[in-house]
Automatic annotation (TrEMBL):
Residues 1-22 form the signal peptide. The keyword Metal-binding does not apply. Residues 337-367 are annotated as: Disordered. This is AB hydrolase-1 domain-containing protein. It comes from Mycena venus. It comes from the Eukaryota. Keywords: Signal.
Length: 399
């Protein structure tokens, strides 16, 4: 046999077995059909039905509501599940309510009946890593993640356009959504105790700094620490309602999520460090706010997000909505006779260098941006000052 033929035979003997084995493996183990799932931690549905967390926050907590689990794809990936609820007439005015950092959609419960009675179709959902929604592993819980989640959810329920309302971190998410998808948002936007104007995580309060640390994530992942948290959560919290009995279930629910849901602490820490809690000024300065009516609500005794932040947000939005010849002033209403905590700042000077198309001419007497301060209300004012909040929100949405 010639040397060249011997070499060819040797190469064949070396190549054929691996090819045969590869073919066998591919035939025996075909790739999974459809998009690849994103690995994630389960939400509250993974706990027993009689668990304390699910007693406070059951899956059927929306009276007369409907809903389900959103399982959509984003490119080649199957996004983690989102739990959502719908209430109100199907042909009603659509509005989506976005909750904040640690308390899931339950924070909006007192507002659902009056909104439904006013003829609204209400959409609520749990953000990734909270409540009944999954917590994607390894994800950055930032504005992009949450804006994408809301966009996919609207696609799932078939809504082409909606009003948007957000509380706390949900206000910053609402702002980012207006900026990213202005064509999906109706004219009216409601921001309640909105976060987002803290520039960096290092500027957060001391407790938030600790919670945003990667060390907390590592400790929360430790089985011994997690077991301790679960034992702590199983005890009755006698002091939970001291001074603020209305908020006791909310604080207990936060503690139970932290103890029982592996993804909760990671999601909160990531959102504090790199998410929609800080550095969101851009979300309130975009041209997406041009021509919108914005209601901003805040409690005067809010020690989580100072009420002065709402005045600053209002000024930023007003600056984005008006041309340079406008005054950029924002109307502030007080629900009782209390002193204004801080003066309203004017739009920053760097806005003057930016050009915006002229906004639609407002109706006579129409106020484009309105800030309303609720006396003696803290950060959970949708829960503790429902009457005042409902009165202002429903009246605003009627307009």
């Amino acid at each position: 046999m010639p040397p060249s033929a011997s070499r060819c035979l040797a190469y064949l003997l070396l190549l054929v077995p691996p090819l045969v084995v590869s073919f066998y493996l591919l035939a025996s183990f075909p790739p999974p059909p459809g998009p690849l799932p994103v690995p994630s931690y389960a939400g509250l549905a993974s706990l027993p039905p009689d668990s304390r967390a699910r007693q406070i926050y059951s899956e059927d907590w929306v009276e007369g509501g409907e809903g389900g689990v959103c399982r959509l794809t984003n490119g080649a990936l199957a996004v983690p599940q989102t739990r959502y609820w719908l209430a109100g007439p199907e042909n009603g005015k659509k509005i989506v309510l976005i909750h904040g950092l640690s308390i899931p959609a339950l924070i909006w419960r007192p507002l659902i009946p009056p909104l439904v009675a006013a003829g609204h179709r209400v959409l609520l959902y749990d953000l990734y890593g909270r409540g009944y929604s999954a917590a994607p592993i390894g994800a950055a819980y930032d504005a992009q993640l949450y804006v994408t989640q809301l966009a996919l959810l609207l696609q799932h329920v078939g809504w082409q356009k909606t009003r948007v309302a957000g509380v706390s971190m949900g206000g910053a998410i609402a702002g980012a959504f207006v900026t990213a998808f202005p064509d999906l948002v109706e004219r009216d936007v409601v921001l309640v105790a909105s976060a987002g104007l803290v520039e960096e995580a290092s500027d957060l309060p001391r407790t938030a700094k600790v919670m945003s640390s990667p060390v907390i994530q590592a400790l929360a992942a430790n089985p011994l620490i997690n077991a301790y948290l679960r034992r702590l959560a199983s005890k009755t919290d006698h002091d939970a309602g001291a001074g603020e009995p209305q908020e006791a279930p909310l604080r207990e629910l936060v503690r139970l999520q932290s103890a029982h849901l592996p993804g909760f602490n990671r999601a909160v820490s990531s959102s504090l460090r790199a998410g929609p809690v800080t550095g969101m000024r851009w979300a309130f300065e975009s041209e997406g706010w041009v021509g919108r009516r914005v209601l901003i609500l805040h409690g005067t005794t809010d020690y989580t997000v100072p009420s002065a932040h709402s005045a600053r947000i209002g000024a930023l939005i007003e600056g984005a909505s008006r041309n340079r010849s406008s005054s950029g002033e924002v109307r502030v209403d007080l629900l009782s006779s209390i002193p204004l905590p801080t003066p309203i700042p004017t739009p920053s000077s760097h806005r003057q260098a930016q050009k915006h198309p002229p906004p639609p001419t407002p109706k006579d007497g129409e106020q484009r941006v309105r800030v309303t301060l609720v006396a003696d209300a803290g950060h959970a004012l949708t829960w503790t000052h429902t009457k005042e909040v409902v009165e202002v929100v429903v009246k605003f949405l009627k307009g």
